[in-house]
Design brief:
Length: 408
């Protein structure tokens, strides 16, 4: 259930709808916005109404649908809608709509709204893979991002007909959370626009046999919060995630892994041209030296000892072998005692730029919606982050990362 907000402070959201088959998903996105207390003005293109009709949008939003620059001319809709908005969210954003927005065209009410909006603008593209990968589309996306718009990466999956690939509109729940993350920032700029970041999340699993594994209590929520807040600040995000059961943030490139060795391979590949790498995952320190080929059975003689070997130290390797000038590397330290002393020792040992140190156990950090931490810097600085939502800690991490990135 979405938590309603006070109507007097309800944000004004403009939902722009492009002419794509995925327009039906925007109905669910609209419902999530309205049921959580947002005021939503739907602005579909004329062609979008071929996919979902005007009565549907009006019924779900509780407002007349704005469709043309010549409707209610005395209210100057082509200017006022954008001026009043706290967020413009375009879903689906077709290749044609991205091209018109990138080139500043104003042939209909939606493109007029995009030109007059001074609030954050989010595009959720949806199209066939070939269209998404076309140089013209890539150039238009780059232009929009350079101007501060947030262009989410499309998801991979089933497209129109029998085709599959990258170009699918993310699920409405993930799109809604992306919109809320942007609204939480208000009018703050997309200060990570043009940056590419890698975030790891979740707890790795080290196989004992085909059924059992060694693992830890990490839920992945902090890593997912880091990915979501980076997206809301305009970054391109690669999320390397061990098993979590969480819905990935809309717009992230997701690389699923299971073991520490797999995570190392994925992170090292993804970080090649990244501006920052944040290792929020709880990576197992050890793994079984051998995996049993079949399920280990009880024999009555007691279990055989499991020989363990050390896993690779991914964080130390990232800090030691940086692949881009000015690349910022962030680690996490989950401690149960002597938290700061252990954290400072780990920071010196790993060689990263920032280390987020938090106390875990007894219901703290793992599996919760909130967190608190001290962020230690290699320069000797530190920042305390009080108890609060994991998104707040994530934003503070990105503040410190941003301040360390070379200017572009």
């Amino acid at each position: 259930m979405n938590t309603p907000i006070d109507d007097g402070a309800a944000p004004e959201v403009v939902l722009g709808v492009g002419a794509g088959i995925a327009a039906y998903k925007a109905c669910e996105l609209l419902r999530r916005f309205t049921e959580s207390g947002h005021k939503v003005q739907v602005v579909p293109t004329a062609e979008a109404l071929r996919f979902v009709g005007e009565p549907t949008w009006a019924a779900l939003s509780g407002r007349p649908v704005a469709t043309g620059v010549w409707d209610a001319v005395h209210e100057v809709p082509h200017v006022r809608i954008g001026q009043r908005a706290d967020l413009v969210f375009v879903a689906p954003a077709t290749a044609d709509l991205l091209a018109r927005a990138a080139n500043g065209l104003a042939g209909d009410l939606l493109t007029n709204t995009l030109l007059t909006a001074r609030c954050p603008v989010v595009f959720a593209p949806a199209m066939h893979t070939e269209m998404w990968e076309h140089p013209a589309t890539r150039a238009n996306v780059a232009t929009l991002r350079e101007r501060g718009a947030i262009v989410l990466e499309p998801a991979e999956g089933r497209l129109t007909g029998a085709d599959t690939g990258k170009g699918r509109l993310p699920d409405p729940e993930a799109l809604f959370e992306a919109g809320r993350a942007v609204l939480r920032r208000g009018s703050l700029p997309a200060d990570l626009a043009g940056r590419r970041v890698v975030v790891s999340a979740g707890g790795t699993r080290e196989a004992i046999d085909p059924v059992r594994y060694l693992g830890n209590r990490s839920s992945g929520r902090q890593g997912y919060a880091l990915a979501a807040t980076a997206l809301a600040r305009g970054a391109r995000v690669t999320l390397v995630t061990a098993a979590t059961g969480l819905t990935a943030p809309a717009g992230a490139d997701v690389l699923p892994v299971e073991s520490a060795v797999q995570m190392r391979e994925a992170v090292l590949e993804a970080r090649r041209d990244a501006d920052a790498v944040v290792m929020a995952a709880a990576v197992a320190d050890f793994r079984p030296a051998e995996q049993a080929p079949g399920k280990i059975k009880k024999t009555g003689a007691g279990p055989k000892p499991i020989e363990l070997v050390e896993n690779p130290d991914i964080l130390a390797e990232l800090a030691r072998e940086r692949t881009a000038a000015g690349q910022v590397v962030v680690g996490f330290a989950a401690e149960t005692d002597d938290v700061l002393a252990n954290g400072r020792a780990k920071l010196a040992r790993k060689g990263c730029d920032l280390l987020v140190v938090n106390q875990v156990g007894d219901g703290r950090a793992f599996g919760t919606e909130d967190n608190q931490a001290v962020i230690l810097g290699a320069d000797g600085g530190s920042a305390e982050v009080p108890h609060g939502p994991k998104s707040a800690l994530a934003d503070r991490v990105w503040d410190l990362v941003r301040d360390r990135l070379p200017r572009v």
